């Protein structure tokens, strides 16, 4: 029996979304191409160049270099790899290179540290879930290969102070990596300082397959200077091309083609409109949850966290709502492009009904 993919009508926890129709169509057309072998597949290879140009526009970078990765995880791993290789060749010390990251950083950096043999040093965040700069200053030294700043954290949608992190990175000759995997397609329409034009950012993760509305897999790794990619390159004797900087070998052209299609269609006006819709939805939901008496973390970007009783959270999941929680146990709702006001209204109605049920006194004899 042929199985159908699930619908998105109750999905509030995901950072993936329905691809834009032009992205879906492009993904289907380029499904059987391999940008990992650019000499043999030149069309998808030139589309990848376009993807990087477009990502550079989104992230304020002239002459961008990089590639379309499988997602934010790969982009983060590769950024750490760049920093490790650079540290190995230039470091004043033979000690294990370290990566300094706020505790709000994505778990993909734990994988990076594990695979690459670097030490991950987590620094605390402040009361508003942004990295504590004093703690970063106290943590860095000559072993620091990279500082990570998050532009749109996974749990609370917060943006670390990227220019200040850049200053600290420069003071110890470390690279600054910005993880904008989720935030990169909404931040251009805010006042936040997060991108290459705002700070000495060296590398960035920015994923078309999240708020960029491309089909999965379409992550993005951008580097300010093409020589940073050389840290990753290996020779490729049996291919028509001579070297490869990606982590995977064969890659689907679907992600590349769909990223170009989505960005060509939506940058900048379509993304701006989507950001406004998503942000308005997040603010509406935050106000509704606050009115129901829950503690809410203000949505600075389209992501709402609120302190719901565990039993209510579980009851919502049992009725089919796909919701997740933060490490501290708050409900976390990501207002992705597929999340509509109507959907959120049904969610709040379901929540309200559960709360009324639990308040109804049981009959006594
Ligand atoms: C900030 C951030 N970075 C990286 C990732 C990992 O991205 P992916 O799941 O595409 O590998 C995520 C995923 O949600 C994320 O929120």
TrEMBL record:
Pfam families cross-referenced by the UniProt entry: Pyridoxal_deC (PF00282)
Modified residues (N6-(pyridoxal phosphate)lysine): 210
Claim: 4Fe-4S is one of the keywords in the record: no
A single GO molecular function term of this UniProt record: aspartate 1-decarboxylase activity
Keywords: Decarboxylase, Lyase, Pyridoxal phosphate
Catalytic reaction(s) noted: L-aspartate + H(+) = beta-alanine + CO2
EC number: 4.1.1.11
Listed InterPro entries: GrpII_AminoAcid_Decarb, MfnA, PyrdxlP-dep_de-COase, PyrdxlP-dep_Trfase, PyrdxlP-dep_Trfase_major, PyrdxlP-dep_Trfase_small
GO BP field: carboxylic acid metabolic process; coenzyme A biosynthetic process
Entry superkingdom: Archaea
Pathway: Cofactor biosynthesis; coenzyme A biosynthesis
Cofactor(s), names only, from the UniProt record: pyridoxal 5'-phosphate
NCBIfam families reported in the protein's UniProt record: tyr_de_CO2_Arch
Family affiliation: Belongs to the group II decarboxylase family. Sphingosine-1-phosphate lyase subfamily. Belongs to the group II decarboxylase family. MfnA subfamily.
Alphabetical list of HAMAP family matching this protein: MfnA_decarbox (MF_01610)
Function according to Swiss-Prot or TrEMBL: Catalyzes the decarboxylation of L-aspartate to produce beta-alanine.
Protein name stated in the entry: Probable L-aspartate decarboxylase
Gene name per UniProt: mfnA
């Amino acid at each position: 029996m042929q199985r159908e993919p699930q619908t998105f009508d109750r999905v509030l926890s995901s950072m993936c979304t329905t691809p834009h129709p032009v992205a879906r169509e492009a993904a289907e057309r380029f499904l059987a191409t391999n940008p990992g072998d650019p000499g043999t597949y030149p069309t998808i290879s030139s589309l990848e160049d376009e993807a990087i140009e477009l990502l550079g526009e989104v992230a304020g970078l002239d002459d961008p270099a990089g590639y379309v990765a499988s997602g934010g995880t790969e982009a983060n791993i590769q950024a750490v790899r760049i920093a490790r290789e650079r540290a190995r060749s230039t470091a004043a010390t033979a000690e294990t290179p370290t990566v300094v990251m706020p505790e709000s950083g994505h778990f993909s950096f734990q994988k990076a540290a594990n695979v690459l043999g670097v030490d991950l040093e987590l620094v605390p965040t402040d009361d508003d879930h942004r990295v504590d700069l004093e703690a970063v200053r106290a943590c860095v030294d000559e072993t620091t290969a990279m500082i990570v700043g998050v532009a749109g954290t996974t749990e609370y949608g917060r943006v670390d102070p990227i220019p200040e992190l850049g200053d600290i990175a420069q003071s110890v000759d470390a690279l600054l990596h910005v993880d904008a995997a989720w935030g990169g397609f909404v931040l251009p329409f805010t006042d936040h300082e997060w991108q290459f034009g705002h700070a000495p950012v060296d590398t960035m993760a920015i994923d078309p397959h999240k708020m960029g509305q491309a089909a999965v897999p379409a992550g993005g790794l951008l580097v300010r200077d093409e020589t940073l990619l050389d840290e990753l390159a290996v020779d490729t004797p049996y291919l028509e091309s001579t070297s490869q900087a990606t982590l995977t070998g064969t890659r689907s052209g679907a992600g590349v083609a769909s990223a170009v299609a989505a960005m060509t269609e939506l940058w900048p006006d379509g993304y701006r409109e989507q950001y406004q819709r998503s942000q308005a939805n997040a603010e509406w939901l935050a106000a509704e949850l606050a009115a129901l008496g829950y503690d809410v973390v203000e949505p600075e970007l389209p992501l709402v966290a609120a302190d719901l009783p565990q039993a209510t959270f579980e009851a919502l999941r049992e009725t089919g709502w796909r919701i997740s929680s933060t490490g501290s146990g708050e409900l976390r709702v990501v207002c992705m492009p597929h999340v509509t006001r109507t959907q959120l209204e049904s969610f709040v109605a379901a929540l309200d009904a559960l709360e009324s049920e639990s308040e109804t006194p049981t009959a006594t004899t």
